[in-house]
Amino acid sequence: MCKAFLEIGKRYGLVAGDIKSTSMGVSGVDVQFSPQAQRALGDIAVECKNVEALSVATTFSEHAAKYPGFLALLFHTRNRTEPMVTLRMKDFMQILAGWLANPEAKDITE
Questions:
Q1: What's the pTM?
Q2: What is the per-residue pLDDT for 93?
Q3: From CA 100, how far away is CA 94, in angstroms rounded?
Q4: What are the sequence ranges of the domains in the chain?
Q5: Which of helix, strand or coil describes residue 47?
Q6: Please, are residues 22 and 30 in contact by the beta-carbon 8 Å criterion?
Q7: What is the C-alpha to C-alpha distance for residues 43 and 98, in angstroms, rounded to an integer?
Q8: Measured distance CA(40)–CA(19) in Å, rounded
Q9: What whole-number distance in Å separates Cα of residue 2 and Cα of residue 21?
């Protein structure tokens, strides 16, 4: 997860120490951003789950409630599956609108 954020962050001068994964059991977000990373990427609150059974709606709602005003993201996967991301529809639409308005940004998916 951190590697994906860092690849985008490199465009803004971020380095490996600017984005860190927390250990299991640590309270708070699962991916920590330095002040420089937060300025570059915005207020993002990341929760990561790697479990075979997950109540996505409940887990996401609880996570988002802890971080009002942040872009709440729930990264989730289970064994032998591709990771997925859950976010609010309004946040997705805002990201999509920005992506469509900026042709240079479209290469982040390549």
A1: 0.84
A2: 96
A3: 10
A4: 1-23+30-40, 43-105
A5: strand
A6: yes
A7: 16
A8: 11
A9: 6
For residues 59, 65, 71, 72, the Cα torsion angle rounded to the nearest 10 degrees is -10
With b for 16 or more beta-carbon neighbours within 10 A and e for fewer, the 64-86 pattern comes to beebeebbbbbbbbeeeeeeeeb
Tell me the per-residue pLDDT of 3-24, one tens digit each, with 9 for 90 and over.
787 788 888 888 888 998 888 7
Instruction: Report the pLDDT value the prediction gives residue 1, as an integer from 0 to 100.
Output: 62
Check pLDDT > 80 for residue 107.
Answer: no
Tens-place pLDDT, residues 53-100: 999 999 999 999 999 999 999 999 999 999 999 999 999 999 999 888
- Pull the structure tokens for residue 37: 């990373």
Task: Please provide residue 92's backbone torsions phi and psi, each rounded to the nearest 5 degrees.
Answer: -60, -45
* CA Rg value for the chain: 14
Which residue type, as a one-letter code, is found at position 23? S
Contacts of 5 (CB under 8 A, 6+ apart): 19, 31, 33, 37, 41
SS3 16: helix
